[in-house]
From TrEMBL, chains A, B:
Main location: membrane
PANTHER family (UniProt xref): EG:EG0003.4 PROTEIN-RELATED, UDP-GLUCURONOSYLTRANSFERASE 2A2
Molecular function in Gene Ontology: glucuronosyltransferase activity
The family this protein is said to belong to: Belongs to the UDP-glycosyltransferase family.
Transmembrane annotation, as ranges: 500-523
Species of origin: Sciurus vulgaris
EC number: 2.4.1.17
Cellular component aspect of the GO annotation: membrane
Designated name of the protein: glucuronosyltransferase
Amino acid sequence: MVSVVNITMLKKFVQLLVLNLTLTEVVLSGNVLIWPSDGSHWLNIKIIVEELIQRNHSVTVLVSPKSLFINSSSDFSVKFEEIPVSYKKSNIDSIIEHIIRLWKNHRPTPFTIWTFYKELGKLLDSIFQVNTQICDGVFNNPSLMARLQKGGFDVLVADPVLVCGELVALKLGIPFIYTLRFSPAWTVERNCGKIPAPMSYVPAALSELTDQMTFGERVKNAISYSLQDYIFQSYWKEWNSYHSEVLGRPTTLCETMGKAEIWLIRTYWDFEFPRPYLPNFEFVGGLHCKPAKPLPKEMEDFVQSSGEDGIVVFSLGSMVKNLTEEKANFIASALAQLPQKVVWRYKGKKPATLGANTRIFDWLPQNDLLGHPKTKAFVTHGGTNGIYEAIYHGIPMVGIPIFGDQPDNIVHMKAKGAAVEVKFNTMTSADLLSALRTVIYQPSYKENAMRLSRIHHDQPVKPLDRAVFWIEFVMRHKGAKHLRPASHDLTWFQYHSLDVIGFLLACVATVIFMVTKCCLFSCQKIGKTGKKKKRE
Amino acid sequence: MVSVVNITMLKKFVQLLVLNLTLTEVVLSGNVLIWPSDGSHWLNIKIIVEELIQRNHSVTVLVSPKSLFINSSSDFSVKFEEIPVSYKKSNIDSIIEHIIRLWKNHRPTPFTIWTFYKELGKLLDSIFQVNTQICDGVFNNPSLMARLQKGGFDVLVADPVLVCGELVALKLGIPFIYTLRFSPAWTVERNCGKIPAPMSYVPAALSELTDQMTFGERVKNAISYSLQDYIFQSYWKEWNSYHSEVLGRPTTLCETMGKAEIWLIRTYWDFEFPRPYLPNFEFVGGLHCKPAKPLPKEMEDFVQSSGEDGIVVFSLGSMVKNLTEEKANFIASALAQLPQKVVWRYKGKKPATLGANTRIFDWLPQNDLLGHPKTKAFVTHGGTNGIYEAIYHGIPMVGIPIFGDQPDNIVHMKAKGAAVEVKFNTMTSADLLSALRTVIYQPSYKENAMRLSRIHHDQPVKPLDRAVFWIEFVMRHKGAKHLRPASHDLTWFQYHSLDVIGFLLACVATVIFMVTKCCLFSCQKIGKTGKKKKRE
């Protein structure tokens, strides 16, 4: 039976890894250009940037001065190239508010799916306005373009949520890599990356469905895919013109995006439902996760004071700055009824119902708290980064999703038995309290969270190392063409073999027609001969 | 720009790998049961067995005394369990002859595709007779079954080419892993493993097509898939009954095979055309490859005597024991015209036309020869193992494929620009000589072989380590259910969403019908009112 082995085995394994390293080509010192992104998207790319620098690569980040998260005066040794833009930070804030409003008013239930996707289309329009300013800030800026041309970059890394990274790479004549959490209904991954997504068991991103669907859910899934494709095709039209103009030849956004050498997807099979993918897709979810560091003295004392009951970590992320007084009181009174101590990230006014067991902080060392042995549960808005920290440390979750992929993320964690959901719009104190008691006291939630954690930790290579490996691979080999499927060269009807099926059906129809004609002709002949014979 | 870095970077990388190891669970000492296979299939599994033993696992191999390749008195420390069978070695030889005859007479050109697949069906029948004897030898053998039950195995590893490994695993209540090169038209991988294979750019295995197909080739591909599915469905019927009987409940071969935790596919993207796959498929092609060892003294002297011209390695594999005198003379006279020295693996009578530059051997240290710096080209029958040794060492090839996947393999290497094909049935001295001159003197062949070699060596983890990692993973976690797609729980029409599409079409039709009816009704109403008004 299975048993843990001695240190000799461990050494053997390390030897094998070292042998592998010597057999493969040596790590390189390359020159990486980063196309900007913002919010949690940037937090994730930042980890890759830091790792690239650790490994002796030179990294240059393109950045607009209106970026919310990229701090060009930060201390890590990155070069920054500023993109001049005329929009204001308030434009970005209003887009974020628009996103939150969209989910608040039109969460995609079976009855609101049409209005949800229609509103999503409008949102994409306002994003387009800001995004094109960033693109113009590069392409209409000869001195910046000249500096980039002289930069001698080996590869560009971009999150396709902010379009134009692919255009910059093509203009510079260098390969590019995408890092991506998702696009709605996998529109970009499917249409541009050519990843297959059978709608019978691959739920459309944002549909809040799982891989186990009833007939009705499969109908909803099919509609999600179709509506999203329709909206994206309309949205793409503007980008198709933009890309054709910049490249000086007729092209489409999707064709250009499809030239990505590698797609680094920010999930893994601890979170994702198993689905088909392609060799140039690498699932590197949780690449930002790391072991917990010690907490600040004051916080550690508070955590230790929880005794056997342990603590609950509460954070609705960096995008939700405030709550209504009513909602804050709901939450505080629920938390006050727990025997656990609670650390709550909250910037608003201190709620009147705040219990003695709850302490409010402007900011939390979230990963260190989730990795603390006293932590029993995590109340989260369901952002991918936070969920991955919970998976990494094996902490069960209460999800209060607000917008974007958050509802979908919580559906994933619920399906895997590691979370309970509370609806943000309709929640009461009792709902939150009951959800917290469930994940803390029903052992299955902890067990499932630990199972996901074991899956996460038990990979041949860590996600961050895999992400950096493929960036380095593309630099070493000037691309990864050997992973690119031939489907990129097919039209949609060729891809679905409609011409072949049509031809084969026509052949069958011709054969049936000929055989029927022959039979009829023979019958007539026999009939005539018979009549002749009768006459004779 | 890209530059090679110093030893500090190397150390950093090793540190990272070690850190990764300590974060993941420690390697285990488990108990592995191997379901037998034969020929080159066994040669590949043997490498995994040796590695498992190296890593302190206990390995037991089930073996029939009539096995051609498994030598139960071999020196590596494996336990063997004998399966009693009544067939003779000559039965196996006649199956091999049948396979060779099938390809010789019915190689699947567009005009012989139907007869090829019909003959393949007959061949599958004779394999079924032998295969069921092996299965009966286990299931009708209570003492062997009792020993296996007491064996405390953690996992079973099988090549599905020999059926029943999956049944043994289910009877023992342990997870199982497949290691597989291919099934014709990916029938098993598609139907039982649920891997998608869009026929527009994924050529059916054995079709001798590439991923770049003309319209005619795509029609041939569609026919290859359909015919193979039809033949396999017929072949499966017998196995469905067998499996239902052994398990004591109605089941099918495919349902049972579909329970494999991991599918270790014996190719990689250096050889394979990029195609969709699933997270429980791992491409571990070339896992048997290793650096060359020094040659025996006499052989090394001969190789060194070739000077600048270098040598050619010639082998048609272990299955082809003899050639006609005419063919052997053709070959020998072609080789005699080369400035290179030639080492030829050949067991037949010495050909009259043998040149002074050619030396015949009963057996060759093929990998050591291919890894020799003097080697310029490899003449091969195109077995996967040999091709992978050539890829590993970056040697261009002349392929003389004979049967099985060999013609397909050579098509892959031709498409990647690393090989030239010579037809076994029709080849002349001139053909072989011209092919050899092409791969030796046209630099693109060596460059492409080197490119494939670089791709092969530049993976995050070596193929053998990945194969063993997943075997160990399944032992540690008692399976890999998190990688299993939900498509296994769907019927074929659910999988293809035919019910959903039908329902949506019915909805659209109903709406069109209702709208038309309403319009007609309104028109009639307006018409009537108009007439009334006219009358008034």
